[in-house]
Design a protein that fits this description.
alpha+beta, Butyryl-CoA Dehydrogenase, subunit A, domain 3, 4-stranded mixed sheet, 8 helices, about 15% strand, rod-shaped
Amino acid sequence: MTGFARDERVLPLGLIAWELRSVNHRYLEISLRLPEEMRSLEGDLRQAIGAKLRRGKVDATLVLRPDVAREIALELDEPLLDRLVEQVGRVRRRTGDVASIDAMELLRWPGVVREPERDLRPLQEASVTLLDSALEQLCGARAAEGARLRELMVARCHGIGALVTQVSARLPEVRERIRVRLMEKLSVIAASPNQERFEQELVLALQRMDVDEELDRLKGHLDEVLSALDGDEAVGRRLDFLMQELNREANTLSSKSQDLETTRAAVEIKVLIEQLREQVQNVE
């Protein structure tokens, strides 16, 4: 399901913020963008996202904005600086260079000036806590979309159910028409039917065209779909399977049909099933 969430927090070191975007995907695919200081947390962060989400392509970005007003503490490596000054002096004595030492050039030497090592644990802990809060927002957005999607899917299930009922109601008429058709063919060839043989042929014809089982299975699968939509668990994969079963029964119904209205109803059922199948791709 699609969704967006952003949550931020101001810490002594600056501002941290999570931005989460989720789009439809058959499986769970997580893309993390982290500052270098947070790389060691990648495994824990992926696990936290996986614990809340089952499907979808999720882009998760952690933003760190240091407080520019905060005084940055710098440390001077005095032993290294002393060695540099000593070496500069040796060079000057050898070359006779009497120019003064450029202090800024010395400070640019790697390692002479450095920032003190920071304790990243508070920052990392705050990032994990803030991710949980952002995930709650994202799940709320996805749940709202899921509620709207459920209404659409239930409406299509009811539409399929109405068509199945319509086909079921026509079955006695269809069977009688098959019987009449056989009688008409016999009358064309002016044959006097053997009643027992006629009944046998009629039964065979009705068996080949019988769709009672397909209609019963369609009803059963629709009940399972509606039951799954009312549950609290992740049902996306189960619905994928049920869409395949619904489509199989609809195809069989269409192939067996010897009635124009039944054929039209079967086509409508397949259209609604395809619409359902597309919507199921958005269900977790």
